[in-house]
Amino acid sequence: MYRDERIDTRCKDQFYRELNLQMKGLLSVETDWLANLANAAALLFYQMDQINWAGFYLVRKGGLVLGPFGGKPACTRIQMGQGVCGTAAERRESQVVEDVHQFPGHIACDVASESEIVIPMLDGERLLGVLDVDSPIRARFDWEDERHLGAFAELLVEGSDWEGLDD
């Protein structure tokens, strides 16, 4: 179950184990995808150090539309293949960007963002959307974050009922 205390971030593996335990607790009492994404965004935004945005973009009519998030107001629509989120969605591959200013076509929703990680959320072959986390610190994310956030996204996909999410 969710505990209202900060998780120790000194060891990434332990941090993500605790984060996933908290997410599993939240998923154990709810299956609605919208409620689960809202709680997941809040959990990430509250628990992760050195980030300025955490949330989701969902597939709608061939593009991505802003979903639940924590942080400053964000871009509402992103075309497939555009920016880090659109690239991750189109390729169905995670994107770990050390310096967003070097990423061709980066969409700057928050000018403070320096690095970004985007994880596609797949239900079998169906693309549901992407998990997006931004940081004001250059090179904040690495392969460990990609692996662990990928597992976090899988928990959400498996623990949620996606009925009503039209694509």
Mind explaining what this structure looks like?
This protein has helices at 12-27, 33-47, 83-91, 143-159, and strands at residues 53-60, 63-71, 77-79, 95-97, 115-123, 126-135. The mean pLDDT is 93. Strands 3-2-1-6-5-4 form a six-stranded antiparallel beta sheet, sandwiched between helices. The protein starts with 11 loop residues before the first helix and ends in an 8-residue tail after the last helix. The chain has a single domain (12-159), classed as 2-Layer Sandwich (Beta-Lactamase), CATH 3.30.450. With 167 residues, it is an alpha+beta fold. Helix 1 packs antiparallel against helix 2. The chain has four helices and six strands.
Approximate shape: globular
Number of domains: 1
What distance lies between the first and last C-alpha atoms, to the nearest angstrom?
Answer: 31 Å
**Quaternary structure annotation:** single chain
Total number of strands: 6
The CATH architecture: 2-Layer Sandwich
Low-confidence runs: none
- From the helix content, strand content and strand pairing, which structural class follows? alpha+beta
What's the helix-strand series?
HHEEEHEEEH
Radius of gyration: 15 Å
Q: Widest sheet: strand order?
A: 3-2-1-6-5-4
What's the helix count?
A: 4
Q: CATH homologous superfamily?
A: GAF domain
Q: CATH fold name, please?
A: Beta-Lactamase
Biggest sheet details: 6 strands, antiparallel
On the 0-100 scale, what is the average pLDDT? 93
Strand content: 25-35%
CATH hierarchy, class: Alpha Beta
Give the fraction of residues assigned to helices: 25-40%
